[in-house]
Every structure is written in C-alpha cells, then in structure tokens.
Amino acid sequence: MTDEPLGFWRIAAAHPDRPALYADADGTTYTFGQLHARANQVAHGLRALGLGTGDTVAVALPNTVEYFEVVLGCLQIGVYCTPINWHLVGPEIAYIVNDCDAKVFITDARFTAEATAARAEIELGDEGLFAVGDIDGYRSYDELTEGQPTDPPADRTAGMTMHYTSGTTGRPKGVKRTLVEIDPDDMFALYTGFQGMFGIEPHGDGVHICGSPLYHTAVLMWSGSALHMGHKVILMDKWDPVRMIELIDEHRVTWSHMVPTQFHRILQAVPPEDRDRHDVSSLQAMVHAAAPCPPDIKRQMIEWWGDAIWEYYGATEGGGTVITAAEWLKKPGSVGLPWTGFDVKILDDDGNEVPADTEGTVYMTLGAADFEYKGDSAKTKDNRTADGYFTVGDWGLIDEDGYLFLKDRKSDMIISGGVNIYPAEIEAVLYSAPGVDDVAVFGIPHDDWGEEVKAVIQLKDDAPDPDTAREQIFAFCETQLAKFKRPRTIDFIETMPRDPNGKLYKRTLRDPYWEGRDRQI
Questions:
Q1: CA distance readout (Å), 157 to 57, 182, 298, 362
Q2: pLDDT exceeds 90 at position 417
Q3: What would the DSSP string read from start to end of 403-455?
Q4: By the 8 A CB rule, do 235 and 23 touch?
Q5: Residue 512: predicted pLDDT
Q6: Other Cβ atoms closer than 10 A to 258
Q7: pLDDT digit string (tens) for 49-98?
C-alpha cells in the first residue's frame, strides 16, 4: 500500500507529468495533467449545452483518447455515459441513443456509414450530434471542447456509466444504477477495490494494457480503474496478438483484462519456439472472463504465463466468483469461489436452494449499487429473489468445496468471442426476412470464438429454392443486424419442432452440435 493519492483527479493534481495513457495507434503519450485538462473541457462543454445531473451522453467511439476524455468529463458532473458497440448498424445505434434519453451523441468518422444511418432515427436533434472527424450532419467534436476552461468545473458531482445488456425479449436494456452523491475525487473507492482480489495494488510499477473495445463493461471499468490507481494504460486501437506481446515486453505491462479468444489467438500467433523471444516476466495478473476458456487453451497459458492467469465469472449487474491458476489446476473447469463479501447459490425451478453437486440456476448477490433495467421493471423484478440475489440465467452446480461449475445456459444467450448475443433479437429480425415462416437461432461450437450464430429456418410455401433463399436472408441481415449478430450459417427444416401450444423445442435442434461436450457454454 502507499500514501500516494488515489483517484484520477487527485493523482492528476499531484502528479500532472506522470504518464497516464499511451495510444499505440500513433505512439502518443498523454500525461495525467493533459488528460485531466481535456476531460475538464468536455465537462464544461456538456454543461454549456445544458446537461445537468442525471442527463445522459451516448458514445460510439474507437479506442482513442477521446473515449477517456468523454467518460472522465461525464463522471465529474453527474452525467450518465452510455457506451455503444460500434459494430452495431445504424438502427441499432439509434435505438440505444433514443432509449437512454441521450442529450448528446458522440461518434467517430471511421463509423460514418452507420452514424449517417443512425442520424435518420435519432430523436435528440442535430445540435446534440458530435463526431471526431467529419460526418455530414454532425458537429465537430472540437466544437464541444474548443475554448472551454481546462480547470475543473464548479459544483462537481459523481456521474456513472450506463451499459446496455441485450435482452431475451429482443431489445437491449440499459443497466441503470442510482447516482451516488459523492465528490468525484472519492470515486476511486468504487473502481479500485475489485482489482485487489487479483493482487493489483495502486501506484508502484503497475501498467495496464487495453486491447479490447472500450464499449465493453469490464474493459472500460478495468482501464478506468488503472487510471484511478495511478497506473499507465497502454491503449491498443485494434487488437493484434503479436503486437500485444511486443507491447507487454516494451512497456513492462503488469495486468490486463482479456477474453479466451485472445488467449487462443496469442497461442496461434506465437508458437512455443518463439515465446522466449519476448520478456513477459512483468506480468502479474492477466485476468480473463466473459466466456468459457477451453481447458487445453487455459493449460497452455498457465504453462507460459504462470500464476498471472486469473479467471472470474460475473455480470454487468454485479456479483461473481474468482479462481487462481493453482486452484484451476486442482479444479479444472471451475470458475471459482464467490468474491469476498458476495455469495453464490444454486436454486431449483421452485426457488429452493439445492445440495452440493446438484445442478440448477446460478444466483448471485447484487453489486454494491442496486440497478434497474431501464424501461423494463418486469425484467428487473423477474431476474432476482426477495433476499437480494439475481441471475443471468446460467445453469451450474457448486461442489462440496464451494467451487462453482457452469454447465449450460438456461436462457438461450450465445457468447461469441466474449460478446453476449441474444437469439430473440436476431429471431425478431429474421421473421421479417424474405421467405421466412418460422425461425430458431442458437449457438454452436466454434474453435476460435467459442460459439457462432446458427439459424434454422422453416421457409414459406412460396419461398424460392433454398440456395436463393439463403442468399436473400444473408443480404437482408447485412442491413438489419450488426456483423457479430448475423447467422454464420443457415439450415432449412421442413417443420419446426413445436408442441401444439407453439412452444419451440430448441434443444432438439441445438443439442446435436454440442454432443460430447460437457460444458455447453
């Protein structure tokens, strides 16, 4: 531990010349003082537009310094910042901008096509549209910050991020927590405690590398936590496995947040005979989550990176488990024990807790701050128990030693490359596709991504031949669904397996693809 100040703003005031962010895209290093000044200009610019406590700014930005400027600007004036996945297509982006009641939407010129498509459906008006670079109909990001003071705004109060998690009913839902009435300088307590579970301590020689998109909840939270702890963030604009290893060596990286797909890609890109060429001895905590890691991949990473490999299981909504490399080798396939101060239990369909080694639905205690799914009080209520536990629908068991093992997903959610994909959303789109009479979407195994999206479709009687229908459906999906949501393959079936009441037996379609695999998520 250290007597050094904690929290981005305090560190920036005490050590303005300390490196805060290295942008690998152009090799620029930003100090805490520079980033602080730029974030202050964003805060003043938002207030000049009339934004106040409880208002929302939506962002669809790549991994650039502007992302941190906007988030840090919002967090000190009581504003919610809603990150949007820039892989979404225009209508999907517009839906989130409108649903979160954003008064400002900020994007980047590299997403011009989708930003232009979204503009036609965004309700906030062109005065609230900003872009880094030039997009027709969007004001320059420079207009938001130009001429604004670089000192902190008056009457500072803590804001929050509001992430969207896809819903089983087909539309994403914002996880909106109640604003905490504290000075932003004290926010570090909300963002640095979690990392302590992995031995990550403030200040010292800590260096965090961010290779995943910042729109992900955990990626933004972990990168922000690094700044609040006084660590330098190495920001990759686009993830590349070899470049990541080079940056680890060059900058003496100590920790990061990753997904198993990245482990797989690193092992493929850097064969065993080449691994000694890169010094990764600085690594202390390379934490992975968001998707199951194939046992063979994890064993190879532990052999290479040793005790730096940690895993946790959790959700945007709160709660979870954690496991060390040594524990995993003793309990292969487990996602660990509950976080300190949290609890995990297994309930049957009647809501009763089951004995050890008995499968059921996984329930976890809520996070420090309660939440609601914005605009969906029914979903908020349905996913939790009266005594403060919630579920994301995963199916598993807790063994006699208290370790959690995930077995299946009671809901139909697909996890591909660490990204949550909900079939209901895709099915709702496919029902409007040409020639489609009935449809089922589910995940099937993929060696690299973990799962890929499969669609099984019953065609209308007047539909064209299957090959033509498949081409038409793929073309339709290109305009209606983000690339990561689009079915990679489509099979046709004469009659969808439904009972007389219309209930779909999706597992009869899905199970053959997972035959021989113990863990089906």
A1: 16, 6, 42, 36
A2: no
A3: -EEEEEESS--EEETTEEE-HHHHHHHHTTSTTEEEEEEEEEEETTTEEEEEE
A4: yes
A5: 87
A6: 26
A7: 999 999 999 999 999 999 999 999 999 999 999 999 999 999 999 999 99
- Pairing label, strands 56-60, 80-83: parallel
421: Cβ contacts below 8 Å, ≥ 6 apart: 166, 413, 414, 415, 443, 453, 484, 485
- The type of residue at 519 is R
Residue where the block lists tokens 């349905």: 382
d(CA 477, CA 486): 6
User: In this predicted structure, what is the pLDDT of residue 260?
Assistant: 83
* Terminal alpha carbon distance of the chain: 39
pLDDT at 418: 80
- How many other CB atoms sit within 10 Å of the CB of residue 68? 27
Q: How many CB atoms lie within 10 A of CB 14?
A: 12
pLDDT at 519: 55
DSSP string, 206-261: -EEEE-S-TTSHHHHHHHHHHHHTTPEEEE-SS--HHHHHHHHHHHT--EEEE-HH
Q: C-alpha angle with apex 191: 248 to 22, nearest 5 degrees?
A: 30
Work out the number of other CB atoms within 10 angstroms of the CB of residue 272.
Answer: 10
* Nearest-angstrom CA–CA distance, 53 and 418: 33
- Contact assessment for residue 443 and residue 437, using Cβ atoms and an 8 Å cutoff: no
- Helix, strand, coil percent values for the chain (each to nearest 5): 35, 25, 40
Beta-strand relationship, 255-258 and 232-235: unpaired
Mean pLDDT on 396-421? 84
C-alpha distances in Å from residue 442, one per residue of 205, 425, 426, 512, 515: 44, 11, 10, 12, 15
| Model pTM above 0.70 | yes
Beta strands in 12-96 (DSSP E): 19-23, 28-31, 56-60, 80-83
- Which residue in 451, 468, 452, 469 sits closest to 460, CA to CA? 469
Instruction: Round to whole Å and give the CA distance between 201 and 107.
Output: 34
- Confidence band for 194, pLDDT divided at 50, 70 and 90: confident
For residue range 138-166, list pLDDT tens digits in order. 999 999 999 999 999 998 999 999 998 76
Between CA 175 and CA 458 the distance in angstroms is: 35
Please check the confidence at residue 1 and state whether its pLDDT lies above 50: no
